[in-house]
Design goal:
The protein is an alpha/beta fold. It has two domains: about 130 residues, Rossmann fold; about 100 residues, LytTr DNA-binding domain (OB fold (Dihydrolipoamide Acetyltransferase, E2P)). Helices cover about 30% and strands about 35% of the residues. It has a five-stranded parallel sheet with strand order 2-1-3-4-5, with helices on both faces. The protein has a five-stranded antiparallel sheet with strand order 10-9-8-12-11. The chain has a three-stranded antiparallel sheet with strand order 13-14-15.
Length: about 240
Amino acid sequence: MKVIIIDDEPLARSIVKEYLQSIPGAELIAECGDGFEGIKAIQQLQPELIFLDIQMPKISGFEMLELIDNPPAVIFTTAFDEFAIRAFESSAVDYLLKPFSKARFEKAIQKYLQQSGMPQTKQLIENAAALPEQQNRIVVKDGNKIRIIPVHTIHYLEAADDYVKIVTKDGSFLKKRTMAFFEESLAVYQFVRVHRSYIVNAQLITRIDAYEKDGHLLLLNTGAKLPVSKAGYAKLKEALGI
C-alpha cells in the first residue's frame, strides 16, 4: 500500500507518519507541504492512498484533487468538521478530525482496506466543487503551471467538447467541467447562460442587439460579441431585470 501525506503542518505529517509505522504493508513514499508538491508526487509516484489536508496555502486539498487525472483514494485530515462532513460523507474513504488518536487512524485504514472496487474520489471532487467555499475561484492547468482564476476576472465561458474554455483578460484556459456545472455554480456571481455554448459575466454587458430571427447578439465591454439564443435572452432579461 503506497501512501503519500499532503499537509502544510509538519507536526500533522509527523503524527500520520508515526501511526503508519504500525500498519503492515504500508509504505510512505512521499511527504508534501502543499498542493503543488502533492500533484507532482501523485503523478510521479502513483500512490494507492493519500492523507490530505483541506485548508492549505496556495491551493486547497479539493482544488489539488481536481487537477489530477486519476486521483487515488483519499483520507482527509482536517480541523474543519462541518466543512468536511458536508463535502465527503458519501465519497471519501474517511476523514480524521484533528487531533485524532491512533485508534481512530487505524479505523480509517481498516475502512480503506475493506473497500471494494475503485475509490469514489471523482464523486468526492464533484461534491466538494459544489460547495460555496469552492466557487469564488477556478484552478486550472496551464501547461506545466497551475493558474488560479478569480471568478470576477472571467469574461465568459465557452463550451469546448468535453471541456469548458474560460476566457479572461490574460487569455483562455480549459477546465474539464460541464457547462451545466458552471451555469449553476456561477449564477450567484451574475453569470448567465445566454446560449447553449456560452455563459457570460453579465456585469460586462454593454449592449444587446437583435440578430436574425429570434436571436440576439451580445456586446461586452471587452469587445467580444456573443450569440444569444431565444431561451438565453429570456434568462438574460430576468437576470438584468428588463
